[in-house]
Amino acid sequence: MGWFKKSIFFMLALMTGIVLMPFYAKAAAPKQILIGTLYASSGPFATSSTSQYHGLEFWVN
Question: Of these four, 14, 37, 40, 60, which has the most CB atoms within 10 Å of its CB?
Answer without folding.
Answer: 40
